[in-house]
Structures are given as structure tokens and as C-alpha cells.
Amino acid sequence: MTASRWLSRTAVNGVLLLATCYMLFPLVWLLTAATKDAGGLLAGNAFSFEGFDLGGNLARLAEHHDGVYFRWYLNSLLYAGIGAAACALISVAAGYAFHVYDFRGKEKLFGLVLLGVLVPTTALALPMYLLASEIGIVNTYAAVLLPVLVNPFGVYLSRVLCAAYVPGEALEAARIDGAGEMRVFWSIGLRTVMPGFVTVFLFQFTAVWNNFFLPLVMLSDQKLFPLSLGLYAWNSNAHAEPGYYPLVVTGSLLAVVPLVLAFVSLQRHWKAGLTAGSVK
């Protein structure tokens, strides 16, 4: 190996190592800070394990306000899990329809979908609140669930994947064998672009799990809060009552767990062959 090649490889590995440390630094802080009480956090020694009290923090988290934190946790799982799964299915179905079928105004309608990608979700929060108020679903689970069922970028990505990987020969063969359009989509279209389904699911799951502004606008009942809004409320109280700081930090640590599990458990679908089993 030449000296220049060795130096370039060392430089690249060094940059990657620094980037990894930069990304892991907040997680390491969260792991150590969750073991501290309010005094340890305010003293500025969060990176040490002195005064380890993770079990006590978890117990206080479960007891505070009759365990409302875990009610928020279940709410977040409901919003993110059901919302992301339904959104991914709708996005893949829409992308499949844009690719497979010809109908009047298809490209213009798809242009509107692309326009939706450019609009920030925060700009739509107030109009969605007004619509929700008109139909009477403000301060309900539906007020948060319904808006997250639509993802313009997911529709765009699904159409691109369907155009690249859905085999037209397999669709025609299924139709000749007497399969209906729903059966063709479910057995061939959806299975062929399953990695795309998983990608849209993970994107939407992460977005909904971290969603803050929409629940802030839609919800006033604390029992309906997701974790993001509930922890924000606790953090606002921590300025007056420092005892909330360990609760916020420990709650934030637990809030990371579903995201890590989702990415670790579903990453294998990205590595699977996109058209495996579709054409023999």
C-alpha cells in the first residue's frame, strides 16, 4: 500500500470516527444522565456514574401523576405505529396506481403530490386544526391520526420503486389467471416493493414519534398527549421544580428505545432482493 493511499484511508476513517462520536455523544449523555438525581444533573457531572440511581428514577417516573408517562408512551405507540403502517400502505397503493393505471389527469394529479412534498407540515397545522374543528374531532385520537395518514414523499418514492421493480409480465400473468386487481396488488405489487413499504413506514414512524407541533395544536387533554408533548410540559415545569429534570431525562431515554428497535428489526428488509419471488 502506497503512503498516499494509506494517508487517504486514514483521513477518511478518522472523519467517519469523528462523525460517529458526534452522533453518539447525545446518546451517551442521555444514558449517564438518566442515572442521576436532580442534584447530580444540576451539579454538571452527568457523564459520571457516581450516585447511580436509574432504578429510583424509573420508579418515580412510573409513580408520577399515577403513571401518566406510560399513558403517553402508549399514545405515541398508537399514533406512530398505526399511523405509520396505514400511511405506508396508502403510499404504496397510490404509487402502484400511478405506475400501473392510466387515467385522465394522472400526471397533473401527481404534480399536486409533488407540490405537497414542498409544503412544510408546520404550515398545514393551522388549516388542519380548522378542518378538525369543523368536523368535531379536535382533542381526540383521530385529530392526530388522520393527518399522518398522508405522506406525499412516500407516494413519490413508492411510484419510483414500482416503476423500477414491479414486473409488468407478472401482473399480466396474474390477470390472465383470473386474479382481481386487489389480489394482484396484494400478492405481487406490495410484496415486490416491500422494502419501499418498510422505508416509508420507518420515515413516517420516526416523524410521527417525534411530532410535536400537530399534537400541540390539536390536543388539550393530557391523557391524549404523545411523549413529545408530555415531556415538553414536564420540561417547562422543571424551571420552577428541579425535581422534574430526572423525570424528563429518564423519560427521554425510554423514548429512544422504540426508534432503535424499529430500525434494527426492519433493516433486513432493505437488504432483501426487491424482486425475489416475483418472476420465476
From TrEMBL:
PROSITE patterns reported in the protein's UniProt record: ABC_TM1
SUPFAM superfamilies to which the protein is assigned, alphabetical: MetI-like (SSF161098)
Transmembrane segments annotated in the record for this chain: 12-32, 77-98, 110-132, 144-167, 188-209, 244-264
InterPro entries assigned: MetI-like, MetI-like_sf
Key words, A-Z: Cell membrane, Membrane, Transmembrane, Transmembrane helix, Transport
Record-stated family: Belongs to the binding-protein-dependent transport system permease family.
Name used for this protein in its record: Carbohydrate ABC transporter permease
